[in-house]
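hey so i finally got around to running the thing on that chain from the lab meeting. sorry it took forever, my laptop kept dying and i had to restart like 3 times. anyway pasting the input first so we r on the same page abt which one it is
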Amino acid sequence: MASAARGLDRGPRVLLPFCALLALLGPARGVHIKKAEAAEPGEALRYLHAAELGEALRELAASAPPGLARLFSIGESVEGRPLWVLRLTAGLEAPRAGEEPGGSPLPGRPQVKLVGNMHGDEPLARPLLLQLARELVRGWAGGDVRIGRLLNTTDLYLLPSLNPDGFEHAQEGDCGGGVASGRENSRGRDLNRSFPDQFEASEPDLGPVPEVRALIAWMRRNKFLLSGNLHGGSVVASYPYDDSPTHKPTGVYSKSADDEVFKYLAKAYASHHPIMRTGKPNCPGEEGETFPEGITNGAQWYDVEGGMQDYNYVWADCFEITLELSCCKYPLTSELEQEWENNRESLLSFIEKVHIGVKGFVRDAVTKAGLENTTIVVAGIAHNITAGKYGDYHRLLVPGTYNVTAVAMGYTPLTRENIEVKEGDATEVDFFLQPAVMAPAPNITQLTATPAPASTVASTVVQAEAPSPTSLHQPVQPVDFRHHHFSDMEIFLRRYANEYPNITRLYSAGKSVELRELYVMEISDNPGVHEAGEPEFKYIGNMHGNEVVGRELLLNLIEYLCKNFGTDPEVTDLVRSTRIHIMPSMNPDGYEKSQEGDRGGTVGRNNSNNYDLNRNFPDQFFQVADPPQPETLAVMSWLKTYPFVLSANLHGGSLVVNYPYDDDEQGMAIYSKSPDDAVFQQLALSYSKENKKMYQGSPCKDMYPNEYFPHGITNGAQWYNVPGGMQDWNYLNTNCFEVTIELGCVKYPDAEELPKYWEQNRRSLLQFMKQVHRGVWGFVLDATDGRGILNATISVAEINHPVTTYKDGDYWRLLVQGTYKITASARGYNPVTKTVAVDSEGAVQVNFTLKRTDAKVEEGKVPVPNTPDTSDPNEKEFETLIKDLSAENGVEHLLLSSSGKVSPYRYRPYKDLSEFLRGLYLNYPHITNLSSLGQSVEFRQIWSLEISNKPNQSEPEEPKIRFVAGIHGNAPVGTELLLTLAEFLCMNYKKNAAVTKLIDRTRIVIVPSLNPDGREIAQERGCTSNIGRTNAHGRDLDTDFTSNYSRYSGTREPETKAIIDNLILKRDFSLSVALDGGSLLVTYPYDKPVQTVENKETLKHLASVYANNHPSMHLGQPGCPNKSDENIPGGVIRGSEWHSHLGSMKDFSVTFGHCPEITVYTSCCYFPSAGQLPGLWAEHRRSLLSMLVEVHKGVHGFVQDKSGKAISKAVIVLNEGLRICTKEGGYFHVLLAPGLHNINAIADGYQQKHMQVLVRHDAPSSVFIVFDMENKIFGLPRELVVTVAGASMSALVLTACIIWCVCSIKSNRHKDGFHRLRQHHDDYEDEIRMMSTGSKKSLLSHEFQDETDTEEETLYSSKH
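ok and heres what got predicted. didnt touch it at all, straight out
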């Protein structure tokens, strides 16, 4: 919308076509064309036509990290071209049916839009906005801090072309525009003259401008705060107003109420643009035009009636400026790269300005409900804005001091004075308005005219609140009051999950004895995701099947939360700040047996195996004799999966809140005090105080006349002893504080009584949930990289109950009011202690930053490892994938998004197995390679299937993992699991992004049956049978991997020899997983009895990764027949501590193959029926895939010398023990447990390098080792050469001395000889002649000269 662009009547612009023609014909133009041609092959930016632009946007949205991008159209142009908008912000949900095309706004996140190509012949914004989108997506994926902050806090919308029809008629290189240039839409209408205007009474006809209609409708559906309208034809930032009441063509400064804000925004853009900030665009034909500081008031430049920027401000509360980006309306493609460089920083800086000013929430002072459409008045500024749906508002203001008033119909206005707005992020100011009956409407104009005082305040967070009379807001109450049997409850839960998909997720924590699902409804503003810093809460009902009130109350609560989210402030705040999990029935089998009207009976109390589930948990004081039940195991697994902070277990039969401990070591009914007794009392009271009858303390006088509970709470053990209770197990084994709530004297009341129970408990249920936000919370971070530390310990002085951090380093610690000394500690770090004051309301955030324990690293005495360049977006993208898959439910999300559901349904004998593997190879030849490692005793092939994007090619930089099964032929479950895994991976390649990237970056080798002979004779349902366990020679193959492989290789079994020679001794694997049967656990090396285990922490960690991803294995209670007393902590144990034996495959793999191996025992039964295979696959698939993720962690390294030469076969010594060698190309990879590790790098002929590396639980660590100097001379070690050289020099000096002495003696003898010669001249004449001749020859003949003689030696010779 430049000068001619905005009004074609400006004379000087008529010269532009002529100037352009001269430029085209002139010599300078020829040079420019040559430059363009030279740059063309590498040109990244170009103009895209409508279809290309749509495809580019689609590809970008599809390739963006999940939850970052959403592409949609707000309408169509006259000719039916879509008006594409790309939305970019973190945390977007997948599109849902019936939803607004772009998705719902995110509460508290300001919306910014950039609109381009409003005039079709001004298309520079099209490539610039596309490039901006690409850079933002790349920056987010690459971990760019600035872009990460921007997209985490800003809701950005990019509309590259509002006039796609006009663009199709425009001509590249047309700098001045003109008639039929493509400026207008297809009906000849200028879109920037088609909006309603504040100075005109008549409404414009929007019929011919569907583009404008679409934009207005889109703006009305949203609440944009900041906007930029991108044009061409000059270089300046123009701000409202664009016209004036007089409509004088030029020269009238038409000042808006927010003139200072608009100038601030315009300068934010102009000051970062190298040409715009000069104020002298020097455009052809307009060389004398200047704009001080690169900005101008629109009407002062020239009058534009019906412009878009004024409509934004006057009608939509959106602050928009118009940005003229280049003198030429349609620059050549060759100039686009420079234009991008000119505008990049300006665009980013402008978007960031959306965060200035003042923001907050306006709420009802009584109910805390958000007050939508509240008017926000700033004294001295005659332009008001309104609050959003949740009472949220954001008012752009320049730095200064302001008086701000909130005005809502039916409420007393409230003013906050002296609010200081500083440069940078907005000041937060919340308003709490008093309800007022029949209050007169305030005079907003009068409020606006009040000047702001000059005084300032220091605080940046202000809250205004007053006493609370009765609220006018009434939340929606549940209407579904009836007893729900399982099918009815199932339908109810599915219905609410379907109707409220934005805040709900229905999942199952496991199954009952009779295979009913233990349903859990998650309610959160981001369901399915643990948000760092957000606490998790749970309710469990119906643990005793005949105690049904809790079951129905929790269904009522689900209905209440869903229906009131977004309208009731209490519910909205709770759902937005808490991840809530509700399990209505833990004992669905027992419920189906119980009977309505049961007051105090026991029918249906227990589960289908007739065990009381609240006596079935491991106990701190007593050994629980009853076998663990499926429901108990499922709940224990559930509790280990999520970082619950607070919980309540809803029962019936009395009316009281019961808190830990539930028993004591003497088994007597006495007060059994936990370390957090004060916290538990406060939690219990928070519930009972809201239930009037409960708080009175004498609940069931007709049934238990003598029972009295002061204030409606009691210590569990003081009431009666309950060994094996769930609430104590929560407290002692997780970070979760749980109480047990008895909801009424009657266990199974009649249905008509249910509304009364809801009314009695509604406030209690909500109030108890709020307690999750009491005490302290925060993050424990690594001082080196700022990342969260998993499993750091938070301990409170004088309270013997530590809690631990979750995956992002976040923690929550419930505490009562008081002052505490809190310590954060973690393995490998120095602990930090802080003194913290906890208030009676709310939680205090306390963050800890821990430094690593090795001070040498800080002092620089130990080299910090170099890290390779990770700027490659593909590397960053893959690192993000590993982090995502390592997160809670990360692999589960992969499984849910996978295509082609596969599941084993039968066992495959050898022939079928071979055909199946060949089928995979033939159907997926590009990613598979089938080979035979060797043959069994009976000449069956031992198949090996490699899955990789480059099968059968050496890729030393990629980690390699092997899965081996069937070492015992009578345990074929592992075989079927691996075959299913192979098919799953193949089917999802190029279908599922995560699977595709894993295959592209991993070499996966699957050996499904190591003992095919034994498998052929094994018998289905042989749970304990040993038939087929050994090979055809009767040898247990897992005892055949003897230590000295060179001495006994000739006597090995053929199966063992095949895997040793062709897999293990290749020494190129990073991890091995072997599947066996006969229990439900994981063992790690060694199977042989040893005193110490090198790298034990890593081996145990790898086993734990598998066990923790299995629904029940990590509980450590396999529950196998005849092993009821078996207790394996975490489901992981060292092999020798379980079944010690020599010659195992994993011991050999670790010792000689330099590869850690774990053995997974997949089920109690060796050979269960085929009908159990689908269930076994469902249980193990997450664990199997987790190993594909885990193999990418640990330490990846590269070793080279200073010249850049890669060093293979260098020795990498880890923690003074474990040794591995670098591969071809200098690569090495080793898996290590999370924590700090020492690395020594040794290579023959080089100086040793020492460093430390921190291994994370969710990401690989990279080291780049460069040896400082070569330590060889003539191929020999430098130390040896120096020693030998020194000795040689000493010997040479000594030899020289000896020679000199000898020569001196000889010289004296020669003198005597010549004296005698003179006396006997005749006798010696011939001899003298010969000596003389020889001497001359030695002097004159070059061929007799020794080139090594010194000058002195030559001189000495000549004297002779």
